[in-house]
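Many introductory courses stop at the sequence. We go one step further.
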Amino acid sequence: MSDSSLDVTATNRPSPDWLILSIACIAQFMVVLDVSIVNVALPRMGHDLHFTYNSAQWVVNAYVLTFAGFLLLGGRASDFFGRRRVYITGIIIFTLASIGAGVAQTGSQMIAIRAVQGIGGAILSPATLTIIVTTFSGPRLPKAIGAWSAVAGAGGAVGGLLGGILTGWASWRWIFFINVPFGIVAGTVAAMYLREMRNRGATTKLDVTGSVLVTGGLASVIYAVVNTTTHAWTSSTTLGWLILGLALLATFIFWEGKVASHPLVPFKIFKSRPLTTANLMMLLIGGAFFAMWYFLTYYFQLVLGYGPVKAGFAFFPMALAIIIGAQISSRLLSRTGVRPLLQIGATLATLGFLWISLIKPADSYAGHILVPSFICAFAMGLLFAPLATAATSGVDRADAGLASGLLNTARQVGGSLSLAILATVATDVTHRALTTASQASALTSGYQRAFQISAVVTLVALFVSFALPRNTGRTVVATTTPSSQISPNIPVEPA
């Protein structure tokens, strides 16, 4: 990756690599955690704030949609304004919104604040991967990406565990308040130790119009899909929202390609085959895994009768599996390259989802859930580091923020669309099954169908992986410039 247009400014304090890695990982953990930590709390939160089963999705989707829609803007902001400044700004917005969500008194307040929290996450998350890519190099880079990926992946599973403990032993409001001390510590340490680094040649004009168009388009499409549980696909309401969403997305594409002087997404970046393939895979993989946490949460509590704490602990082995998979992946990456690891991970994920789709209402956790869910989570750990490496290996380091923003956007868009579609399908299957089966059996039938579709999605991702060049992931380790060669206030020469 060339880094000729980077400008670096030193702080007055030393910046040990382990500390910089911790700054990036803590923030990424917070951002990913807040997608899944609400799942276990949704039943109690829904009762207190008067959510219906379908409207409860918007506690998740309000966060994910603004997160996805503004991630690209956040990625460009890291390139333009500097990783340190953007990181601190993002963590302040995220922490303040977490306080607001914790004190929300109505469902509409919660959804609005979660949307703001998503914007904070969108500013913060791309800066974390930018920090990794611009700090580490050589054999240290895949290890750092492995740690970042393990934390990002584990956030989903740990969110279920932590959400269950906090909801059961304290209150669901603490699932938001828990972010506050982490945000204060991470922001303070970043201000003290993180060196500033930005694209010196970039204009500071950001494409806010593009962000609004893509966010509005995605929100409209997902709103239409979610509402199909109460309005038919052919109804004027559903079609109206679908047409509006597609029109906004088409306008976004036209705006980016023909009108915007400084587009949010310069389409030329997709000339990088590793980046394009990684984003398509992340769209598919992220969607499947995102939905897994959601449906397992409801299966544990509504079918197996677990309380929030027990449901939370049921996710603990999955968190361990993700960490193990990510560590194995990061150690093998420089030897095998990206493609073999992605193919192994996608294959395991497909098998895991097929296995877990066999669940029954009276199944035991140890006998029927533990192993397939562990396989799925292990596959997730294997996949995220190679995907992050592929997405950033073929672009200029000055565009690292954009590349990381695209990858995170693919993950969040995939997750939001997947949740909307699969939850709608599961609800429809459940409603039809209620005519002849008990509630537990009907709910389980819906979850089974969701996992079956997830298996198909990960199988498609396996086929997509064959589009990657064979040597992706090997060359990036050998060609990145060591961070020790980056001198303060001196443009970095090409590697």
